[in-house]
Amino acid sequence: MQHVAANFKQRRRKVLVQCGCAVLGASVVIQIVALNSPSQPLFTSGSGSGLQRSGEQDLTETQRAWFWAARCVAADRPDAPAYLEAAWHQTEAWWLRPLALTWAILLGLGVRFYQPAPILSKEDQRRLKQQQQQQQQQQRQARLRQGSEQALALGGQLAEADAQDAVRALQRLELPFFATSGKSVDRPVSGIEIRGNPRGNALQNWKAARSVLEAQLSTALNCSVVVHLVQVEEERATMGQKMFDLFVTQAPKETVSSGSVMLSASSLLLSIACVMNFPSSTMLHQLGAVIAPDSQMPVGVLFCLLAVGELARYVSARNVGVHTKPPIFLPSPQIGVLGTLSGVQTPCPSRAAALMVALAAPLSITAGSLICLALAAAMPLSTDEWQALHTLPQVTMPAWPLALFGSTLHPLKWAGVHGLVMASLALLPHSPDGHIVWSCLHGRSFAKRLGNITLLAFPIIGVLFSSADTASLTTLPLMWTFFLINFSTHEQEMLALEEVSEVPLAGRLLGYSVLAAAAMGAWPVPLSSLA
């Protein structure tokens, strides 16, 4: 401590000596200027006369000119250069002019920068504090707008800074949900996960509570958002007690992009060309086409089944206020077409609604396929109406249901069985519709794990049970896996708006029955190989 005190005294003494030398030098410069300059009246009237102070009567006009110039510099007056120029011309000794000019500028700047802060009243201090807070709030809002614009440019993602703002916005006792923490996540979808506690009857009256929370968060984040109430499926969820978090996403666009429409139209044209040409195309036969040449495929019936399925999906989605995406048609070199990949554009209101929307297309295709099988049984083959389809005997059917009716079959029977295969593929756990069904019945975490397993197991089973004579068994599983990896979007599927309400018992029984039938119909190898 003594050493520190000694150093402080030494530095203070040094500063005082420097200040004394500066004052002495300034006095010497002023006296020299006074001795070498005539005493003529200067600034006897006008704005300069207001700078004169008491006690300056003994100074010469030149000295007062430099003092006034220094005071103008200290006061940051716009006419300070004019006073400096006047004092410069008033000094006749040319070698003293630079010294006096430097002294006046340094003295004025020193007084300006080192003058003590003014003593403000409490009212002025309060007003100054309010102005600072307003400036900080404007800067924060500007940063939020910039972050929101960047997030929109990057695909509508909310940043980590938005998560903190969302938590602060929901830390109010009057809101139906009190937030405790939040973070920006990418799974199950891109958004903000907010943990907290529902208040009052928010879970029972979630529709009204969601409107209040969305209005609060949209104002805080400066963008339109959608609030989801999701069930906790992690380790912190206790046994026998359900816990819920908020999941905040940016409001999706209800309009369909032109790129999606172009992709859907292109895939439709490619699938139609594949179905119409694969019985007679040599290249497609080399890739595993199963229909013999000169056979006429029921092109219209097959695509009517797909159209009925997509129409059913659209109608069921619109009944619950949801918009759908344009379907992507999947061509196949073996059987012509494998089905479609589609989904919803906006979130479903509940898990029961999401289940019905996901089952609409496969069930409609199944119903249409059964009608085709019934018509094929009632309408025998005739050369005038229907021509029999012949399959190549040396080619193994890629899906076992197609091999149940021999090498010669009715076109409607082919279309019916083909439709059942497409519906079964659509409900596999790693397919978009099947993934949603499993999510609604058993939760998102279970559906994701099961989908990851079947995504690898489906082609592997085809490879394990194939041989040199049945190499075509691997083509369909590999093609379906390829389409799902490159064109499916179920990893970023829309969450339901709330997961409080359970799926009714009838919906659960229907879902389990359909999933079991789909697993059997989409089995990638003939059932006879398991015997």
Task: Describe what this molecule looks like in 3D.
This protein has 531 residues and is of the alpha+beta class. The chain is built from 16 helices and eight strands. The protein has helices at 2-35, 61-74, 80-90, 97-114, 122-153, 160-169, 206-221, 258-277, 282-286, 299-319, 351-378, 411-426, 432-442, 444-464, 475-487, 505-521, and strands at 177-185, 191-198, 225-231, 244-250, 328-332, 336-341, 389-390, 408-409. It has a four-stranded antiparallel beta sheet, with helices on one face. Strands 5-6 form a two-stranded antiparallel ribbon. It has a two-stranded antiparallel sheet with strand order 7-8. The termini are far apart. The relative contact order is 0.07.
Secondary-structure map with pairings?
Layout: H1 2-35, H2 61-74, H3 80-90, H4 97-114, H5 122-153, H6 160-169, E1 177-185, E2 191-198, H7 206-221, E3 225-231, E4 244-250, H8 258-277, H9 282-286, H10 299-319, E5 328-332, E6 336-341, H11 351-378, E7 389-390, E8 408-409, H12 411-426, H13 432-442, H14 444-464, H15 475-487, H16 505-521
Antiparallel strand pairs: 1-2, 2-4, 3-4, 5-6, 7-8
Helix pairs in contact: 1-4, 2-3, 2-4, 3-4, 6-7, 10-11, 10-12, 11-12, 11-13, 12-16, 13-14, 13-16, 14-15
Please summarize what this structure is.
The chain has helices spanning 2-35, 61-74, 80-90, 97-114, 122-153, 160-169, 206-221, 258-277, 282-286, 299-319, 351-378, 411-426, 432-442, 444-464, 475-487, 505-521; strands at 177-185, 191-198, 225-231, 244-250, 328-332, 336-341, 389-390, 408-409.
